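Lab notebook, bench 4. We co-purified these components, and the gel suggests they stay together. Before we commit to crystallization screens, I want a quick structural picture of the whole thing.
Request: model the full complex, all chains together.
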Amino acid sequence: MDTLVIEGTQKTPYIYLDANGMIEIRGSSYPENCRGFYKPVLSWVSEYSQSPAQRTQVNFYFKYFNTSTSGIVMDILSSLKKCSKPVQVTWTYDDGDEETLLSGQNFSELLEMKFEYTVK
Amino acid sequence: MKLNSYILLEFKGRLNGPLLDQLLASLQWNLEETETSVSLRKRVFSIAMESFQNVYRYAPQLTHSLSGEVNDDMAYSEAHLTVVYEQGKYKVKAGNMLLKEQENALTKQLEEVNHADSESLRQRYNETLQNYRTSNNKGAGLGLMDMKRKANSPLIYTIQPYQDHFWFDIELQIW
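Here is the predicted assembly.
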């Protein structure tokens, strides 16, 4: 599988998807057409989860994100949950940004996946 | 100098996608200049982003220019967007035209969100989020639920006759 890299903008995140087991999404995410923006990402992740690396490290670090992005995060993680190999999710948030920490905890609970939390 | 009240953003006019991006960028920058805590700043921005994007998503797209010519490339919505700080509170306000046929469904959603207590709102939010993939209706009110959960006020709104349709105003207070 090819590595997929999407450069970040003011309202869309930097995305790095590497079949060697590194998945990273960081920055702000509030495109008007969220599903359109994330379509290649969702396809990549869905294909990756069929034949994942020995270990997968998933890093999320959002500054600002809209509710449509929350739906996408659910989709991405639901796909990765199907991986036959271990998946580690690290959820990074800005110091003092309780809302983003709480969102991470909520995703973790809804998806029944263990997250590691780090503060920037 | 700490001011008691200030305007962070005020826009009244014809809104399109690129303009909305600029307004949000300027709001983000202005908020970061204030002495507000990270958490409050993020809640204010999130609510503004969600409510302004709702305007962009749901308000009828108009395509006639002021001279009456039709130009599909120049689609816009009439909008009124405000973020102010007054007496210790941030107020995010968004106003847009609402078609007659949109009014019932919107009023129902607003009332349901306002009547839900925080626990049932949390449950509804999570149910909607989990069914997000299968729902085709632009998120089914997820934005409104999120706004109420992040604000300290209910969804304060008015719907008034406007031309042949309605004008919808919504306000959220955050502190």
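Helices of chain B lie at 17-33, 38-58, 100-115, 118-130, 142-150. Worth comparing against the SEC data before the next meeting. Chain B touches chain A through 28 residues (CB under 8 Å).
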